[in-house]
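User: I want to check something. If I give you two sequences, will you return the structure for each one separately, not as a complex?

Assistant: Yes, each is folded on its own. Here is the first sequence with its structure:
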Amino acid sequence: MNLLEQYRSKLRTADEAVRAVKSGDWVDYGTNNSYPAALDAALAKRREELHSVKVRGNLMQGPVNVVECDPETEHFIYNTWHCSAYERRLCDRGRAYFTPMVFRNMDWYYRSFLKVDVAMISAAPMDEDGNFNLSGTVGVTRTIADCARHLIVEVNPALPRVSGEAAKLPLSKVDAVVETPGSPLWEMNPTPPSELEKQIASHIFPYLCDGATIQLGIGGVPNAIGELIAESDLRDLGMHTELASDGYLSLHRAGKLTNRCKSLHPGVGVMGIAIGSKAFYEWIDGNPDLIGYPLNYVNAIPVIAQHDNMISINGCLAADLYGQVCAESAGLRQISGTGGQLDFVNGATAAKGGRSFLCMSSSYLDREGVRRSRILPHFEGDIVTTPRSEVFFLVTEYGAVNLAGKSSWERAEALIAVAHPDFREELIRAAEAQRIWLPHNKR
């Protein structure tokens, strides 16, 4: 059969395709824009026929039909290894369950420990060479597609095509194809950074240099860094990142993102996942200067470490006086996930001239309007994302402090110096009680 005949032989309706799922199966949806809307709706319709079907996804914007149709989780059990706001609410209600995962280990987990009976993922339409395109989810869905016993592709014409061999999914690997008019993409439009976020970014900016390769997380501080760079004299910056978003588009538009000086993949920006605005999706669509790779490559410490002057910038939620950092929970409440923070902290630290920055505001207002410190005496249930032995720079609006190699009393002194002034005396008393404060420490 020629390609067209092979394609037609695999065409199914969504209802037909989901017949492949059996009770007790593990079903994977992939991540964010790989969400298979038509297949999810069709699978939910089979609710009464199925029991204990375990569904994996992450960063789903919701609603996920198999979750919404089954409040008692008798038929479908939803699992996520990185919470979106929607998935966070599901976890709060006991309707979803979190799976810890360091992203560089994702491929190892799937190939060694996890079962994928059926994978349902959205992809861009097949090209003339017989390849679907995994789009901005290639970092995650490449491994899932490779490991699935039965693979269903839901065609979404709205998805941008990402360059690189890893993004190509041959028709020969696909068991069923479901054509759809296309589902709207999750658009994450950047918001202007606040003055506080600009303050935090200003403490990172002096450590940047021409030719640096930058990994940016998502949020106000990365956006603020982008603004500072766009207005600066910095040149020839590079991109190597787990998640690409509009911050890189801003650097490109300002003429700062050339990738020319990268030690690895010179001239090319490397990414695992892409989420952003409509303009961002238009920029990455078919762009040969931006290549998608699986996360086991993008986030591998030896790969990251090959980039001279590698700069990693990520957000966090809290730190304690020992230097432990939490970026994924508020106490025991799951907020997001481990993701690739530790991967890039370790990778940037190992790079020649590399630095990693974990950023947060020094305090926040709770629901009652009471100010709370993000720097705590010690954690009480908060999940440690980056252990104290791995933290490099920690940044608040009051400064950037390097914790690498510092003793317990030096860490306490440094962290209290960047805490909100309202809490410093209280933190000093806690440090004294915890015996990590010297009498002659700065007050």
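And separately, the second sequence with its own structure:
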Amino acid sequence: MVLAVGTFAVMDAMLKQLAGHYPPIQVSFLRCAASLPFVLVPIALTGRWARLRPVNLPLHLLRGGFAVVMLWGFVWAVGRATLTDVYAVFMSAPLVVLALAALFLGERIGPLRWAAVLLGMTGVVVTLAPSGEGMQLAVGAVAFLAAFSYAASIVTVRVLARTDTTSSMVFWFLALVALAAGLASLPGWVGIRAEHWTWIVAVGFTGWVAQLLVTEAFKLAPASVVAPFEYTALIWALCIDFAFWQALPSGQALVGATIVVAAGLLVLVRERVAPAAGA
């Protein structure tokens, strides 16, 4: 899981680099379009095309809409702030998933977990609060919009998993975002520089590899053991920011991120101790 998170962080760093040359919606298109061949090749080799058939097409379309907003918001934010600052806000997504699952899926969320959600949102507010340091409020707000959209897409996955295969969900996620973002980027399309094609292929490859590593991690150990390692993304982001841009996060972002991570770990510890207690 640590390798998976690190690979995603490397991919995000390349997206940040591309965001300096192309509009965010175009970068969103390139990210998904570049990953599609890596998803389709194994299907083609095995001839298991039936696994791509969508069963709940309206929900796929809804998920695709959330994904477009998520990718656009994330790319827009990392183009204007450090990876660490954006991750400090984006790490709230698991807590938003918890709240949305309770509100729309009827999942039981007890007082302790609601308290963790409120604590995590407090961390986001700390990160976004105007001050002499930290990210600009607009950038932080867009980063949170991306986190919320990601959480909403995760909630749709919980419903889609009842009817559709994993291959179908991955393929239609990438295909719908590539289609929508591609069409939206046409009016302001910027020609791809020759030296950037290597980055684009690398984005597709790292996104594919990271997804394989995540899948393998959750096969090897329980979710409650694996999930906390997702927060190592902040460490990866710190290292990448400093190594490539000599940038360090603001103290405010670090404080906010610490609160968000603490809230997330509180939920995970509670899930391990009493997953069925409804607390």
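Because they were folded independently, the notes below concern the second chain alone. The mean pLDDT is 87. Residues 34 and 101 are 31 Å apart (CA to CA).
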